[in-house]
Amino acid sequence: WRASGERTCTRDPKAARRNSARQTLAMSVTAVSATTLSVLARPRAGTVVRKAALAPIASRVGVRAVPGPRARIVSPRRGEIAAREALPAPDVAPAVIAEVADGLEGGIQAIYLGCLLAILGFAGFIIVRQVLIRRELDDSAKKMGERIRAGNATAEEYFEMGSIMLRKKVFTQAVRNLKLAAQMWEGDKEDLAQIHNALGFGYLSTDKVDEAISEFNKAVELTPGYVTAWNNLGDALEQKKEFKGAIEAYEESLILSPGNKVATVRLDEIKRRQGRLGLLD
């Protein structure tokens, strides 16, 4: 406006710049206010959002608060809480966890491998030992067989041959050689008792219980303190169901050897069974 009151189309440059700055500032304030409201309007877990809390903020920044839905409590689900608690600590790197797991797995595998090697080593030792024993027995049997076939074998050699056959579990040949040894024996009665005991064991292994009992009785008659023969006699009588005689044999064995586990176990078993049946005096 000029002093004469006439309008002109010429603008004041300073006034134009001030108006532009005001508009820019107003737009910036509006954008910031809208962003603030959007952040404040976003509910956090476990908080209550109300319209009354947003009204003073909206009035101060000059933005009208838009009414929203009814305020509600936003709480995390139980599954989410459990999942967050199950997560590893943020300072533990996945690479470290993987390395520890690999180490544990490697240790367990080493233990299993060590146990397997120990079992295989023990089994190999037993097999090698049995092979060596079998080879030694075969060599001894071969030598004894040659002397027996030559017809000049002694009673001791028959006894040794019978013992070898017992260890090889060739009971028929064992019995034949032991019978020849008993017939030809001219030595001590204690050694003869051992021959009768071995002969009784051969008979018992071929289910000839009566012949076994007869041989064991000969052994204990020759050597009354022969604990092994008493045990074998008790076993043979027990197999024949003559429990009274078996008890007497085991008791005699315990008198001679109180720490005899074989007689103790068998005697207790017989008495337990007889007591259950009411047959024990």
Structure commentary:
With 281 residues, this protein is mainly alpha-helical. It has a domain at 188-281: Tetratricopeptide repeat domain (Serine Threonine Protein Phosphatase 5, Tetratricopeptide repeat), CATH 1.25.40. It is 74% helix and 0% strand. It has eleven helices and no strands. It has helices at 13-41, 51-61, 78-86, 94-150, 155-167, 171-184, 189-205, 209-222, 227-239, 243-256, 261-277. The longest helix is centred in the middle third of the chain and has 57 residues, at 94-150. It starts with 12 loop residues before the first helix and ends with a helix. The model is unreliable at 1-10 and 45-66 (pLDDT under 50).
The total of beta strands comes to 0
Biggest beta sheet attributes: none
Q: Helical element count?
A: 11
How helix-rich are the residues, as a percent range? over 70%
Q: What class would the helix/strand composition place it in?
A: mainly alpha
Low-confidence stretches: 1-10, 45-66
- Tell me what the CATH architecture of the domain at 188-281 is: Alpha Horseshoe
Order of helices and strands: HHHHHHHHHHH
CATH homologous superfamily placement of the domain at 188-281: Tetratricopeptide repeat domain
In terms of DSSP E residues, the strand content is under 5%
Give the overall form: elongated
Which CATH class of the domain at 188-281 is shown?
A: Mainly Alpha
Mean pLDDT score:
74
CATH names the topology of the domain at 188-281 as: Serine Threonine Protein Phosphatase 5, Tetratricopeptide repeat
Q: In angstroms, what separates the terminal alpha carbons?
A: 147 Å
Radius of gyration: 53 Å
